[in-house]
């Protein structure tokens, strides 16, 4: 990697990290160019010299915020010994997001999905892919738990995976909208109960 490329990559990373919280809190539409210049201390020309437009910054920021949550999940999952405990990692991580956010402003998936909806196809696609990946990961863990004899054999795997996601993201939305972390705790308790009911 030459020095120019290295400097370009460092500048891009700086812009992404500096604006991650703003995009996650204010959303794509609510984040202005002046927000980006204020957060980075860079000029408009410097930002758009590294990214084609604000949407490209937003996409990179979504990937960054999502990867931070994913890394936390994977790090804790590596330490979990049972499939039950691996599933419980999701409840633990998202409960902590509502208390002391890994990404200030809450979960990047639901924030992006709600805002993008039908107004920004690229951001909506990023959020959709993240949700589908989450469903796939949960489905695999439940199936592995069944195969290992840890979970009941009559579990509706997809329904359980989707229910866990819906409860967690619904809890994040309620907690953030009402400014009440306690509501997230109540929802996570339900998630934990659902996971525990899978055990034989």
UniProtKB/TrEMBL annotation:
Residue ranges of the annotated DNA-binding region, renumbered to this chain: 32-51
PROSITE patterns associated with the record: HTH_TETR_2
Residue ranges occupied by any HTH tetR-type domain in the UniProt entry: 9-69
Coiled coil: none
Lineage top rank: taxon: Bacteria
Keywords: DNA-binding, Transcription, Transcription regulation
Cited Pfam families: TetR_C_13, TetR_N
Record SUPFAM superfamilies: Homeodomain-like, Tetracyclin repressor-like, C-terminal domain
The protein, known as: TetR/AcrR family transcriptional regulator
């Amino acid at each position: 990697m030459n020095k120019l490329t290295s400097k370009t990559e460092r500048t891009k990373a700086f812009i992404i990290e500096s604006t991650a919280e703003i995009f996650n809190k204010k959303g794509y539409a609510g984040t202005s160019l002046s927000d980006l210049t204020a957060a980075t201390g860079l000029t408009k020309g410097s930002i758009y010299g590294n990214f084609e437009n604000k949407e490209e910054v937003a996409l990179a920021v979504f990937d960054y915020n999502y990867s931070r949550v994913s890394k936390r999940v994977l790090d804790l999952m590596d330490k979990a010994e049972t499939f039950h405990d691996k599933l419980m990692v999701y409840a633990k991580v998202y409960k902590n997001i509502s208390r002391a956010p890994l990404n200030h402003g809450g979960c990047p998936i639901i924030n992006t999905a709600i805002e993008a909806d039908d107004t920004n196809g690229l951001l909506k696609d990023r959020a959709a892919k993240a949700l589908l990946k989450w469903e796939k990961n949960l489905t695999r863990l439940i199936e592995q738990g069944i195969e290992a004899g840890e979970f009941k054999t009559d579990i509706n795997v997809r329904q359980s995976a989707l229910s866990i996601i819906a409860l967690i993201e619904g809890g994040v939305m309620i907690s953030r909208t009402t400014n009440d972390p306690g509501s997230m705790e109540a929802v996570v308790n339900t998630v934990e109960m659902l996971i525990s009911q899978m055990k034989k």
